[in-house]
Amino acid sequence: MKTVKKLFPLLRIYRGQLIGVIVLGSIMSICQGIVAPLFAFLFDTVFSTPVQGAAAIPTAGSEHLSFFYEFLYGVFGKDKATLVKVIPFCFIFLYFINGWSRYFHFFLIRMVGEKVSVRIRQQLQEKYLSLSQTFHHDYQGGSGGLLSRTLNDVLVLQNGIYLFADFFREPLLALILLVNLFLLDWKLTLFVLIVAPVLALVLNQIGRGLRKYGHRSQTSLESLTSTLKESLDGVKIIQSYGLVDKMKQRLSGDVNQYLDMRKKVIGNEELAGPASELIGSILFSSLCFYVGRGVIEGTSSAGVFVGFIVALGFMQKPIKKLQDAFVKIQQILVVTERIFSVLDNDNHVPELKNPKPFPEDWKKVEFRNLEFSFGNERILKNVNFTVNRGEVIAIVGESGSGKTTLMNLLERFFDPASGNILIGDIPITDFKLETLRANIALVTQEVFLFNDTVRQNIQFGDLSKPNGDVEQAARLANATKFIEKFPGGFNYNVGERGQRLSGGEKQRVSIARAIFRNSPILILDEATSALDSISEIEVQKGLEQLMKGRTCFVIAHRLSTIMKADRILVFQKGTIIEDGKHDELLVKGGEYFKYYQIQTQGQAH
After folding, report:
1. Are 371 and 380 in contact (CB under 8 A)?
2. Which domains, ranges and CATH numbers included, belong to the chain?
């Protein structure tokens, strides 16, 4: 119940529709519940003797239904010729009402299921976007695993919501039918109830297996989805390095593991059917023997036999529905736990309830005593430096030295273990995240463009600004010439992740996006390292326009970018080992000098 209760806030929104589901389900159950005694009445009062004269209330076997019989006599009279015509129309009327109730009953519950599943997927997307980069870094399943929870797990949960209708409709139908059975023959009904716990015990044992293997099945499906996504994302590298067979083997392993888990789940699911049917056949055989003997001895009637058979036959439907529901509940519990393990995750960057406004006249950015680790791996160690407004700071160092991590801390993708970053003497933790990031523009080596038009991708820099400035931003980014050659110009769709553009074109669109944002702080993370020389020249022109008048943090390997910086910070193993201008650092003959020698001579020292 602790797990199921987590769904209540989502279902409460649609309580009006759910009440309608309950009411319509109740009407269905009542209509179906009347059928069995109506059959008994038809057989006892009409079919048992020729259709002549007035019918009488039988005394053999169905005395407990006398009030029902008297009611029908009061409505339709006792003339058998009339009853044989009217009662069949009663069946038509009942099934007409049942049919319309059924239509709206299932329509409403399915629409609620669709709405809840869409809402959960929206909440998951919002959660993914709010969780810190630490969560995404540590999550073993990767983006494919998160995608599996969003699609596969929510689909299972959606199908589970449909059980809401079953849990209100079928027990009521079972109760009405059980009352019918008691009225028809209470001794035989007690016998049925004695056998029922045996079925419940069998289902409980099956349910344990379903819970155990259901969780493993969803985990293996998550792994399978992750491998499929990785195959699509890395298709170029896979083909280039001849890894097709390797990926086939990897996927085959995931498939085999998934099928093994599904085999166990399906085995447990399908075992419930034969077990319940075997118990049902024992019940039916006992019924035939008991009632048949009563008819022969005159202690029962044909109406009792038919009514009991009809009621018991109808009883199979709610029992089967509840049995299937019991099986599905095990799966629902698994996926609900998996979904809410993400939704309840609090690994996000905290914000103050009353954040401070971002200062307009700030003079410096200060990095004070920063320490940061990923797990047991220490990335930054006692980092201290100050950047004046308008300065261009180049950050160099070997891979893994903490350069990108430092910039991630500036944007608060995650927070340091200790220390702080201040803008205008105010810790960045005092700002609203949205406000902080609105004052920072980011251009990375791996450009991400949305599957949208060139114009929209540039305007994503600041959606609050009019799109009339898009062309100006593109011109400053040195991107107008190639954009105008596209079919539709600025309305040209760049494709998924910008795949319809070249590397240099994508980079200049991203620079235009940063220019359009017009933030006072700029981060350039290896913005030109993946480009050829010609593209770099074109992109560099755009970067020069972008950097004008801004406080810039430039992570780069190429000297063309580094040498123009006001200061250069040299990182090594998470600490700053050198700080100064290009010429000053060359004179020192330290790590930067070695770095410069490698760049200019192509030799390692």
Report:
1. yes
2. 4-343 (1.20.1560.10)
